[in-house]
Amino acid sequence: MSAVAALQMNSGDDVAANLAAAERLVESAAASGALLAALPENFAFMGAYETAKLAHAEADGNGPIQDFLADCAQKHKIWVVAGTVPVAVPGDPQRVYAASLVYDAQGRRAARYDKIHLFDVDVQREGRSERYHESKHIAAGDWKPVTVDTPVGRLGLSVCYDVRFPELYRALVDDGAQLLCTPAAFTARTGEVHWEMLQRARAVENLCYVIAPAQHGTHPGGRSTWGHAMVVDPWGEVLACEPSGDAAVVGRVDLEKQKALRASFPALNHRRA
């Protein structure tokens, strides 16, 4: 068995403070024996306005946030999934890609996935409406499911709102995914009713482990996120969860157990086009 960690943060508009908090959690995960630690969406910056992230956009492969990630992974000898990093869109200064980047334990980048499904919705909460329009300042990634081989198994990448689109995860499983990563900054209202349900559903229907890092608490501008970072097994059991507070939520992955489950309960083989 191998340990993995879903990290939970309360990121704000101070990049240096956020990166320091992220490193403390990565260090804690490594000290717990985790071979892979996954950071939440927007781990490096959550400003009061969506436009604020544009000031922190980095060229692909070059910038202080990406340098931090490489150094942190190498320093603590652990694979790191960076929930999202604002990566510049060539020729479009008004938008960024929400890029989920993976670094190996030597600090080398192993994968990049750009968030495909963008959160353009009105969320009703306590008599008022919270409006989100991610596509205004985020460019959607191309339909290109991304998996990467890690020491804990083949990992399928996704981000937050993606979790509501099961066809993406089935494509990841078709590409060999044994684990799914769903870093998020889920709203408190939608998280309360849907977060755990969605994580467990993606685990059960794909017979995969799910690593679900999360933002928690209140952020600049008054946005509230649900927290409840968790690790879920292929049968839908929540192996570990932290409702609130900064945390490294550690769960254990048993690929032999997963293999036996997929053999005895071969739902993936029973599909019809």
Automatic annotation (TrEMBL):
Residue ranges annotated for the CN hydrolase domain, each copy included: 1-255
Family: Belongs to the carbon-nitrogen hydrolase superfamily. NIT1/NIT2 family.
Recorded GO MF terms: hydrolase activity, acting on carbon-nitrogen (but not peptide) bonds, in linear amides
PANTHER family: DEAMINATED GLUTATHIONE AMIDASE, NITRILASE-RELATED
InterPro entries for this protein: C-N_Hydrolase, C-N_Hydrolase_sf, Nit1/2_C-N_Hydrolase, UPF0012_CS
Keyword line: Hydrolase
Lineage: Bacteria, Pseudomonadati, Pseudomonadota, Gammaproteobacteria, Nevskiales
The protein, known as: Nitrilase
